[in-house]
Amino acid sequence: MGQSILLLVSSTQRRGAEVFGEHLAGALESSGWSVDFYALKRVAGGSEVSATPILGPEGATSGLRPGLIRRLGRIVDELEPDVVMAGGGATLKYSVFALWGRPGPALVYSSIGEPEFWANNPARKLMMTGLLRRTDLVTAVSRATADQLIDGFGVEAGKVHVAHPGVPSEYLDVGRERRSDELHVLFVGSMSDEKDPMAALECLEAMERPSRLRFLGTGPLVEQVRSVARPSVEIAGSVEDVKPHLAWADVLLLTSRTEGLPGVVLEAAASGLPVVAFDVGGVGEAVHDGETGFTHTRGDIHSMAASLDLLAGDDDLRHKMGRSARELVEGHFLLNHAVQRYIDVLEALVK
Predict the structure, then answer these.
(1) For residues 5 and 1, what is the distance between their CA atoms, to the nearest angstrom?
(2) Is the CB of residue 164 less than 8 Å from the CB of residue 285?
(3) Which of 79, 143, 167, 326 has the greatest number of CB atoms lying within 10 Å of its CB?
């Protein structure tokens, strides 16, 4: 009989961690695992992953909800999995408390961001440190994430495994639209403080060459961006399929204040786009400065704009970087690579 796993994600919303969880669930089933895929809550309105929600759209996961702990505990008792894998966000705290006193499952936590950014005060850091001590294994989306867990939160180095994410091979087949005289710059992500879309606008304003900027995403800063955007800025909102927009673009712009290792960078690279990004978290592990794009110190708007201007004026450089970016993904960052990394780690754990 094969091993069994309960995969837990934060919500049914079709975001990076949830989509990867869905892919991982399918791959584990194909490898002989018995898989149950759950989400803490359902987020209605928009595309959803196939996870079974524990709470409905009105359910709350902030703080620590005893009712949710009890419900998750009953699910664990019913399923009796060999492994519970908590996939980022609030899943760690609920998994730790639901498993308290239950000796059976091993607990694996998938850390998908920068823990030092989110545990940014002494109380949060103390809580995170305590939760991490209750895990049996931690996967880190980047080397940068792993280093923060080890150096900042005292997680034993032998318990942390770097497991880079990956993208489906279909992104390798994205074509290029005929280029205009303007550089087409694409921003993909939540319109939030963490992703800092206002910095993207500042980059555009600081450029010397003509350009167009397209935002994909929604969030609390949409109206602020809209109020100051010039006519060459388009706000397309949330989209089901990013590939047509990658085909439109000449370059991906990433102005995030924090990242683990963003999937959108891998999607852009797979499609043959160079990336210009702030060097936060694990970004530098996927964007090789001067080879597949450019990385800059967070907040250095003028250097970012200079890189965009360079790519706008040098078609050969832009295409060369795009080819190198695609080759990097083909060699290490495809979805099948990422899934196999997780399978290897999980199978080693249960042996």
Answers:
(1) 13
(2) yes
(3) 167
